[in-house]
Design brief:
heterodimer; A: alpha/beta; Rossmann fold; Alpha-Beta Plaits; 2 domains; 13 strands; 32% helix; 30% strand; B: mainly alpha; 71% helix
Chain lengths: 297, 267
């Protein structure tokens, strides 16, 4: 697969504070790449360096295998931190200005406004927009020149649940068109729902990188309930059981490697027990993330 | 190049403050420069109250070629208004953080600066055009002789005035980039002449020789004060190449420092 972004030893110091420390990272074409990390872990600083607004202390990176220039940035749509527009200009005028800066066709403006559902409000001043509309305008502006790479930094920050769902759908829609997306977020759920790959940053250090679907692998957890009194003992009697915990009115069974939910189900059935509740839980990214962060200490 | 100017004009032309400030600038500039005779009449009136009589027709304020130096000199005072507009235009980009977004969107830092410099050039040329038109019209009205031979004399004051305005706008742009806050920048801009005057007064020994190369001094020296000639004093009625050279060096330095600041900082 073609490498879109390659980062080698990228470092940024703010005085004595090391915001990003010798970061190495590769993003391939078509990936939806999530950058995770607590607040202040260096996500925005990294993206700022990639987009030419923060001068790196050392290290290098390349877009599409080329040394970065401002011409290359025109091929990338990016929203860092929060939406930035001229408050006294209308949404339409702001996008026209963006088209001038990116030297792209202004005829695309109605399309992107349509996509983010801002067509009705396009002639209102930006300062009158709600936060969700501002976020959506920012995404519209990032999509204006039909970029091959999209960088979104906390795109759902401060949005209501509906707004979050809208943005998530939008990201999926864009990703379905084969665009590479780099998504920085501290909302793990969000990353798990839309990303294919992810990296975890902590205090400027990269502590994990890999595909999202690997996260669910490894030990399986099964929630069980049945109308039997000694269920706890029965479950402990299963050869695949590692631990049993009572949680939220269910028994949560952590299985040993190579055992699955269906094995437990068959075991219970053989014991003459019919489960009234049996759910296989994959490990969530949140748990995984917390583990990674704990390991990284 | 034109494309960069278009970007900056697009930002400004929908900005109401821009129209208000520029409107005020061009209107006051036009009225002040065109109302010299009214001012002389008022002066004559006042002095006749004290028993002195002034024959205002003896003062060739708007006669070709005097009119050129007179008007370009007076117009020089108004450049502060234009400079404040330039400061607002730069510091807004920092307040709204749009300079950051412009660069993310694909302008280089140098291109961003260029777009601002080009607007300065445009504003300077518009000032020159304005003063030239007013000078030309008033000259036609008040000059006893409107022969082309007199009218085209001393036009060198226009390039000098152009440089004067552009140099000052470059200075405004630079402190805008350095300070990044509009209020503070405007105060510094307005006090610049005074601060420089204080420094110049306290110069001693050989350092006195440095006076002409001070930035504000060199900018004002481009079009020297002409009115003493009506009190039968000797004046400098030409543009000194020395002042032009010094001002050009300052123009370069102002814009280069803006460039360095923009290039080195994290935006």
């Amino acid at each position: 697969m073609e490498t879109v972004l390659s980062i080698k030893g990228l470092t940024k110091n703010f005085g004595r504070l090391c915001a990003v420390n010798k970061l190495n990272l590769e993003v391939k074409r078509g990936q939806v790449f999530g950058m995770l990390g607590p607040n202040g872990s260096g996500k925005t600083t990294t993206l700022g360096m990639l987009m030419g607004v923060t001068n790196p202390t050392s290290g290098e990176f390349s877009w599409f295998g080329e040394t970065p220039t401002h011409h290359l940035r025109k091929k990338i749509g990016a929203v860092l931190e929060h939406p930035i527009f001229y408050p006294y200009l209308s949404g339409q005028k702001n996008l026209e200005l963006n088209a001038l800066v990116k030297q792209c066709d202004a005829r695309n403006i109605p399309n992107v406004l349509d996509l983010v559902e801002l067509t009705d409000r396009r002639n209102d001043k930006y300062k009158t927009y709600s936060l969700g509309m501002k976020q959506r305008l920012a995404i519209a502006s990032a999509l204006l020149n039909d970029p091959t790479v999209l960088i979104l930094d906390e795109p759902t920050n401060g949005l209501d649940p509906m707004g979050i769902a809208e943005i998530r759908e939008l990201i999926k829609k864009i990703a379905a068109n084969g665009k590479t997306i780099i998504l920085a977020s501290h909302l793990l759920d969000e990353v798990q729902k839309v990303c294919t790959h992810f990296a975890v940053l902590k205090r400027g250090n990269l502590i994990h990188t890999g595909p999202v679907n690997e996260v669910g692998q490894g030990e399986e957890r099964v929630e069980v309930n049945a109308e039997v009194e000694n269920l706890n003992e029965v479950l402990r009697g299963f050869s695949g059981t590692a631990t049993v915990q009572r949680e939220n009115g269910f028994y949560e069974v952590t299985l040993r490697e190579n055992f699955h939910g269906k094995d437990l189900n068959r075991f219970l059935f053989d014991q003459g027990i019919t489960a009234s509740h049996l759910v296989t839980r994959k490990k969530s990214l949140e748990k995984h993330f917390l583990e990674i962060l704990a390991d990284g200490k | 190049m034109l494309h960069l100017l278009k970007i900056d004009l697009k930002k400004l032309t929908s900005y109401r403050t821009f129209w208000v400030v520029c409107g005020l600038y061009f209107v006051t500039l036009a009225f002040t420069t065109a109302s010299g005779m009214e001012f002389l009449k008022w002066l004559a009136n006042k002095s006749s109250e004290f028993g002195a009589s002034v024959n205002i027709n003896r003062i060739p304020l708007y006669h070709f070629p005097d009119v050129w130096q007179n008007l370009t000199f007076i117009s020089g005072f108004f450049k502060l208004v234009l400079a404040i507009m330039v400061v607002i235009s730069v510091t807004n980009e920092y307040t709204y953080r749009t300079v950051r977004q412009n660069i993310i969107d694909g302008l280089s830092r140098w291109e961003f600066l260029q777009s601002k410099i080009l607007t300065n050039v445009l504003l300077s040329f518009m000032s020159v055009a304005m003063v030239f038109i007013i000078g030309f019209v008033t000259g036609l009205i008040y000059s006893p002789s409107t022969s082309i031979q007199y009218a085209i004399q001393d036009l060198e004051f226009f390039p000098a005035y152009l440089l004067e305005v552009f140099a000052f706008l470059s200075y405004a742009l630079m402190i805008g980039f350095l300070v990044q806050r509009s209020g503070l920048t405007i105060i510094i801009l307005m006090l610049s002449h005074m601060i420089e005057a204080i420094i110049k007064v306290n110069l001693k020994g050989w350092a006195i020789e440095l006076k002409p190369i001070f930035p504000m001094e060199s900018i004002s020296n481009l079009v020297p004060m002409p009115f003493a000639r009506y009190a039968f004093q000797e004046i400098q009625d030409y543009v000194s190449l020395n002042s032009v050279a010094i001002a050009l060096v300052w123009v370069f330095l102002f814009n280069y420092l803006s460039y360095l600041k923009l290039k080195r900082s994290d935006i």
